[in-house]
Amino acid sequence: MAYFEHEGCNLHYEEYGHGTPLLLVHGLGSSTLDWEMQIPALSAHHRVIVPDVRGHGRSDKPRERYSIAGFSADLIALIEHLNLGAVHLVGLSMGGMIAFQLAVDQPQLLKSLCIVNSAPEVKRRSRNDYWQWFKRWSLMRALSMGTIGKALGAKLFPKPEQASLRQKIAARWAKNDKRAYLASFDAIVGWGVQERLSKVSCPTLIVSADRDYTPVALKETYVKLLPDARLVVIADSRHATPLDQPERFNQTLLEFLTAVDTTTQDH
């Protein structure tokens, strides 16, 4: 367990293995535990660094407005704190948004980028968008974190044999600081860097579950805006792909990272 300080906030991170630095960034309401099925496989080849985003896990939960740009600044501070140079960056869901933000702001810090079940913007455009957002916002304020966790577990892991994953998510969600969770949710809504995607110069892997919240078509659209990107669709998976299809996900990611590292060495 290690901590570093950025702008008066103590941020928790963990490190495993040796090799090219690889940062894994979790989603909303989660923590380093998002990556428990990845760390053993990835740390056999890489120096894996897993932070808790501000307001999450063992990191401080300051009473303030959060922003995706602020979360990204925390990551940049961690890269500098550990003197990593250029890193491989993987982000899941909200972590993917943080990764996109870092990639457009500081492209020179990345060797590669992997975005999992995420998007480069969350804009409310239609009346329906506003209504859906308002519904979710109201529910999240009304319900306890435990109740949200149970509902989420059922949605993410609906199969009978996924009972232990459902219980795990429900238990983890209940531990969230509600105020920090809502502040992080508010940071997502209205955020976007889609118009700046041409700045992402590194090789990029977009991973989409076939049954993610947002359709594969959405990912196909923004893959075209990235200079050097490809899309991999993982079958029989929902929003938490690293947990529901760990072997397939790990293999896909490792193949991508190996290809990037090999190309870099050749130059």
UniProtKB/TrEMBL annotation:
| Gene Ontology MF: a single term | hydrolase activity
Give the Gene3D superfamilies listed for this entry. Answer: alpha/beta hydrolase
**Stored InterPro entries:** AB_hydrolase_1 (IPR000073), AB_hydrolase_fold (IPR029058), AB_hydrolase_sf (IPR050266)
Sorted keywords for this record are: Hydrolase
Q: Which residues form the AB hydrolase-1 domain?
A: 21-244
Q: What is this protein called?
A: Alpha/beta hydrolase
Organism in which the protein naturally occurs = Pseudomonas wuhanensis
